[in-house]
User: What shape does this take?
Amino acid sequence: DAKTTQPPSMDCAEGRAANLPCNHSTISGNEYVYWYRQIHSQGPQYIIHGLKNNETNEMASLIITEDRKSSTLILPHATLRDTAVYYCIVNYGGATNKLIFGTGTLLAVQP
Amino acid sequence: SQTIHQWPATLVQPVGSPLSLECTVEGTSNPNLYWYRQAAGRGLQLLFYSVGIGQISSEVPQNLSASRPQDRQFILSSKKLLLSDSGFYLCAWRGPYTEAFFGQGTRLTVV
Assistant: This one.
């Protein structure tokens, strides 16, 4: 699996958009970009994933650059409950592939 | 719908005692199953994963073992616990080309 690089921490004001970057310069053509988050003392929660195109769901948007070497997770209106560690993972997507988590980004939403 | 059960939620065990953590999945067949450990303030470390009954892949050498006696059952064991085995243990499952779903975790304290 390709390696990802994320900033260790970020702050965001409540109600503002949170933009979490991820670098994955060694991503291969058939690897997906997945985002998960882990709220303290809970299991990780799936947020969104994409291959080439930008994606949006009820939780977030995922913007993938054209060369696919980086991506940004956007929480459009961050709330205090969005405070969590956010993990960016690149993976083939097939069920036979192991899922390796990096250190993630601790997003602190400030009131 | 698919659900994942993991128990117990918390466990305090003396050094040298055995360990057995169980994880079961409902609502799907032939899932990939994973065991992760998270030490205090650290990231998620993949311990074991399984693509089928009796098939176990170990990611790191350690004092633990895993077994998959049934399609939707994954067990994490130890014959003699060490202090360093303390942590937050998470079970997860994944189907083909889907995201991973995590249990609520077991917080193990070895004393």
User: Anything to note?
Assistant: The mean pLDDT of chain A is 91. The two ends of chain A are 37 Å apart (CA to CA).
